[in-house]
Amino acid sequence: MTNVLIIGATGSVGSVTRRYFLDNTDDQLTLMARNTGRLGQLRADRERAITGSVTDSAVLQEALADQDVVFAALSGNLAGMAKSLVTAMDQADVKRLLFIASMGIYNEIPASVGGGNLAENPMLQGYRNAADVVEASDLNYTVIRPGWFDNGTDTDYEVTEKGEPFGGHDVSRKSIADLVVRLAHDTTMGTRNSLGINRK
Question: Which residues contact 187 (CB under 8 A, 6 or more apart)?
Answer without folding.
Answer: 96, 140
